[in-house]
Design goal:
Two copies of one chain form a homodimer. In chain A, about 40% of the residues lie in helices and about 15% in strands. Chain A is α/β, with parallel strands linked by helices. In chain A, strand 3, helix 5 (about 90-100) and strand 4 (about 105) form a beta-alpha-beta unit. Chain A contains eight helices and seven strands, in the order αααββαβαβαβαβαβ. In chain A, the strands form two sheets. In chain A, strands 4-3-5-6-7 form a five-stranded mixed β-sheet. In chain A, strands 1-2 form a two-stranded antiparallel sheet. The mean pLDDT of chain A is about 85. In chain A, helix 1 crosses helix 2. Chain A is elongated, with a radius of gyration of 20 Å. The relative contact order of chain A is 0.10. Chains A and B meet through helix 1, helix 2, helix 3, strand 2 and helix 5 of A and helix 1, helix 2, helix 3, strand 2 and helix 5 of B.
Chain lengths: ~200, ~200
């Protein structure tokens, strides 16, 4: 039995395929969208299309940005010899919110996960190694403290050590199994201060 | 401090304005959308626009549908002399899922709420009264058992009684304060069977 009309069903299906949106939420959202004023619907659809079309990787740190180089990499007041490696742009933002980190970032866009079939070549690791040719003094590994994050941290440290660049890992102030983006700023700062050399 | 680029920020803002999506979910969704394949992004945006453009009110029961008349109103096997009044299309679907209701519906698109400034003229009540000119035998009021739903039920029953049409209310098997769309089908059926004349 088709409970809703074709257009409504298709919209519910598309919404339910998004992360964190279950079938009840998708129904609620679909009816909300249909009842929204036309100009707001246009704006939402356009914003999605424009973000998709215009957002790209920063050519240096690979975060998602509107420009060739992101504002942090373009900022000459930041310490470009200090690179913090994070799994994604949201984790980078979590550290930016502390307002205390002076270096730049490198966004991996993932973590090594044999379970999910994600290997070292599937994340921006080669790109990180290329950046080490410059005057980099320290690489801070701030991947999540999950199994994948720890695996990735160990892998990167083994890769970088032969180059002579100092490699550190944020302290385990971050709860084991936790996701960086949900952790409070004080804990994030404590983890940064207590970082240890790998 | 601008944490994300302009396009990402605008997308996060648009998403966070939708019901049930907080700022963390909006961030997560925004990055998911940007990382989705181009064809899936196009499909989502088009589905939203098409649903908005093509979905309209059924000319008889005022549910949201693709056609001039919805499939339920167009179905001659349904009992068109039995009208169930619901607050919205999702509540109608909740009763349709039981598969046991043989009559048709009338969708009010809201409930009377002095608190929110929603009066009898702001919902499809006049349209319900116009339908009573036909051979209607019974109107079953299935508005939510919230304050607004009960107020609406009382208002409708007072309006209909002088016309001589039988008015019933679904039984209070539905928990007080509950929202119809989240209730299991057995409870919904019990409430239908135990309906009492108002």
């Amino acid at each position: 039995m088709e409970l809703y009309s074709g257009h409504i069903n298709r919209l519910i299906e598309e919404l339910a395929a998004l992360p964190g949106i279950g079938s009840k939420s998708a129904q609620r959202l679909a009816f909300h969208l249909i009842n929204m004023p036309q100009d707001r619907v246009n704006r939402l659809a356009n914003t999605i299309m424009e973000a998709k079309a215009n957002v790209r990787y920063c050519s240096q740190c690979f975060t998602l940005t509107d420009n060739e180089v992101c504002p942090i990499c373009a900022n000459q007041k930041r310490n470009h010899n200090l690179i913090m490696v994070v799994e994604n742009t949201r984790d980078m933002t979590a550290y930016e919110k502390t307002g205390k980190y002076e270096g730049v970032y490198h966004v991996l866009h993932g973590a090594i996960s044999p379970m999910l079939g994600i290997g070292p070549n599937d994340i921006k690791l080669k790109e990180l190694m290329l950046r080490l040719k410059e005057d980099v003094e320290e690489v801070i590994i701030a991947t999540n403290s999950s199994l994948e994050g720890e695996t990735t941290a160990m892998y990167i440290s083994k890769l970088i050590k032969p180059t002579g660049v100092k490699v550190t890992r944020i302290a385990s102030g971050v709860p084991v199994g936790g996701d960086l983006e949900y952790i409070d700023e004080v804990t994030l700062l404590r983890a940064l201060e207590g970082r240890v050399e790998l």
